[in-house]
Amino acid sequence: MPAASNTPPLRDTAIVCGAGMSGLLAAAVLAEHFRRVLIVERDRLPKTPALRNGVSQGAHVHTLNGFAGEGIEALLPGFTDELLAAGAVQIRRNKDVWFHDPFGPTPIRDLEIDSPSMSRPLLEHVTRARVAALPGVEFLDQCRVRSVTLDESQKVKSLLVATADGTQRSLQAELVIDCTGRATRLPGWLKDWGFGAVERQQLQIAMTYTSALFRPPAGWDWTPAACLIGPQPSIPRGGYVTPIEGGLWIVTLYGRGQDIAPANLQGFVEWSRGLPHPVIHERLAQTKLASDFHTYGLPTGRWFRYDLMDHFPGGILPLGEAICAYNPMYGQGIGLACAQALALQDGLRARSGQDLNDLASDYFAGCTARNQLGWSIMETADLMFATTEGERPADIEARWQFARTLHDLLPDNPELHRQSLRVTHLLDPPSTLERFKVMG
């Protein structure tokens, strides 16, 4: 007779709304606990790497920050090797990045953080293939969620969805994860269900991104491989050039307010002359355009404070930009989605074989610290600019002075440089900088 297993039986069905990176990471967690994981997506999902309408920022620069890389690897072991084998370029921070922060250039040195660079379509393609291979995972694309119904105990009972041919279906699940990003309707549903309005923190950041792919000159061997120029309050333009699959560069130029990089070759290259440093313009001048231009306007950065609500329905949780959608210039989105997916994993493991009605409180508690760190990074940087509107923290001037002092100390202190990057890459909390006694 086989030995009895101590592993609790799998739960029945979970549903993920949205097949972007946050939805795929959520599904990777759920596949450990549910017999069936259904991913509902409004787009037609491509069979090969391709842009799609539901990922509005998909044509712009994507790299995995330190925590994102570690988080995805923890959820999908071997993922990094597969991504690099598919063509992604490994960027070593800051050995392979010429980085100009709001106060000027920073030292080029190996800070021991790997940061793969690739197109968003390739990143999604590799991740989607890994998740699709997990037991019980199914994709239902070209399908829109119409409504969500609660039962008498205020737990999610069913989702009403509409398929591409207009047919409506009712789907039952023990747990629903909202990964619909900035299009989330959960705040409105909570109000309709009687849970009240969710508090939000928000900044009007008025950012616009313009991007295209370029082919570098034959035999190029420029070091470092990538260039990132952050805007300065007096010169509110920024840009990022990084190698990706296929021997191409992706170039994203971003401006604030009405200062928008043109979506044509001559205007794009000329606009780059106005960046705080000429290095990106010099590279662009030697390349050939290899794609159409894409522009993405981002008016706000916002954080829904579900963690502050007194009550929350059972059977539904938001993840990714459905919770916090910050300024993507800081590369935090996928890292924060990883932190939330790992908090979901912890909560499900702690409740193995138990009811999930109280999952929300521990889930939000488990990811709030990194959500707060991401917000603080965006808030500190974006409030330097006159075009940003929103509440200014009482300590904002002290934060700016701290950042300036930190920048000035970096050339002579490699360990401080490394630790400060670990904070901005969401790997460590800001408290780890206290031992360096940086005075603002």
Helix content: 25-40%
**CATH class assignment of the largest domain:** Alpha Beta
Number of domains: 3
In terms of structural class, how would the helical and strand content be classed?
alpha/beta
Topology, number of strands: 19
- Please compute the radius of gyration using only Cα atoms: 22 Å
Strand and helix order:
EHEHHEEEEHEEEEEHEEEEHHEEEEHHHH
At the fold tier of CATH, the topology name of the largest domain is: FAD/NAD(P)-binding domain
Unreliable segments of 5+ consecutive residues:
1-5
- CATH homology-level superfamily of the largest domain: FAD/NAD(P)-binding domain
> What is the 3D form?
globular
**Biggest sheet layout:** 9 strands, mixed
Strand content: 25-35%
Average pLDDT, rounded to a whole number, is 95
Number of helices: 11
Judging by the overall fold, what is the CATH architecture of the largest domain? 3-Layer(bba) Sandwich
Give the N-to-C terminal Cα separation.
Answer: 69 Å
